[in-house]
Amino acid sequence: MVNLEQLARPCILARKDYIPGKPVEEVRRELGIADVIKLASNENPLGTSPLALQAMAREIERNANRYPESLSPELAGRLAEIHGLQPGQVYLDNGLDGVITRIGMTFLNPGDEVVFGQVTFPAYANAASRMNARLVPAGMTPGLRIDVDAVLGALTGRTKLIFLCNPNNPTGTILTRAEYRRVLDHLPDTALLVMDEAYADFADDAEYPRAAADLPDHPNLIVLRTFSKVMGLAGLRLGYALAQAPLVRLLARSREPFPVNRAAQAGALAALEDRDFYERTLQNNRAGRAFYAQALAGLGIRSIPSQANFILIDLGQPARPVFQAMLRLGVIVRPIDEPGLENYLRISIGLPEENQRAVAALAKALGGSTPARATNTKETA
Ligand SMILES: Cc1ncc(COP(=O)(O)O)c(C=O)c1O
Questions:
Q1: Per the structure, how many domains does the chain have?
Q2: Which one of 65, 132, 162, 256 is CB 3.0 to 4.6 Å from 11, fit for a cystine?
Q3: CA 200 to chain centre
Q4: Is residue 293 domain-shared with residue 329, that is, in the same domain?
């Protein structure tokens, strides 16, 4: 008899399934509600740039039968220009998820250690566990920020990768320039620092550092960006790494031959030129963050000041029943469901009417029960 479990790699068998934000279609099907909004995956609520939509339609019409260019040279060239780098310093893949997997595949041997903040984006742990590397979560500060002392304290001679998410998902907090610099200054030659800047465009704190400026001096630094958030192309799957050219060449060695499809390449190139869409996205996000800060305070709900396109809230009571009740009202948000964070919900910033509906659904779901703590976290960075 075939025993698939014996054939599979143990580190794959041990992995937990990643549970993404619930899709709108699934909620409509399961609960029979037509009018559903999704504020669960930090997507762009404005949709997609009209310029990108036109470019993608044109590309599909003309060239859907042809393989795309393997290394997306035109897009890599434009991104290099934007970030002040050379085209050979840009590595594109199938979403930032694809880039993160590629980094793990390129650098991790079994037993290597991978350090990341305890409350952060799960793809880092996934990339490590796929390669049978050792996960080393570093504790957070009491305000749920990434704790640089804990990160530095977790480094050993076996540390291969350090993933820092900045702004951090799901907390929305940032590492300041000084904190990031401390990590960079203590970075051993035997490890790589990966700065995940998926939400960089939304950060407007003067202390927020953009790490690409440090690439010339650091051959073991990788900076990650995505087209899924501010660029509104999550469905097309396109993310990229910025690093020195030898590191980019290493990443490219294990890639699929055509990781980025034609529509994504064409759409991304056009989206980069759509300043109007970009500015409207940021403006909507700023207004949405301000709205939530005020509305949540009005409900007596503690929230963590966010530098991203989502907000993490502490209900002071188990969040899953509140999440379920909001689902029944047609509003999809995200419970964190991790040990110690059972009381937290993450809400993506939506359109103004979506934000209002989310707050109304939250108030109704809480059913008049007062959250345990009604203070606002003071730790802002
Ligand atoms: C911090 C962070 N990095 C990476 C990703 C993955 O981005 P992509 O859609 O490009 O795979 C996400 C998606 O939510 C994210 O939050």
A1: 2
A2: 132
A3: 10
A4: yes
Angstrom distance (rounded) from CA 315 to CA 362: 10
CB atoms < 10 A from the CB of 76, how many? 23
Measured distance CA(311)–CA(173) in Å, rounded: 10
Could you tell me how many residues make up the chain? Answer: 381
pTM of the model: 0.94
Distance of CA 358 to the CA centre of its chain: 21
Per residue in 172-196, pLDDT (tens digit) is: 999 999 999 999 999 999 999 999 9
Domain boundaries, position 335: 7-47+276-366
**How many CB atoms neighbour CB 84 within 10 A?**
12
| Ramachandran class of 219: left when φ > 0, alpha when ψ lies in -120 to 50, beta otherwise | alpha
Q: Is 234 in the pocket of ligand 1 (CB under 6 A)?
A: yes
Q: Is the CB of 232 under 6 A from ligand 1?
A: no
C-alpha span between 114 and 93 (Å, rounded): 21
Amino acid at the residue 137: P
- Residue 197 Cβ contacting ligand 1 at under 6 Å: no
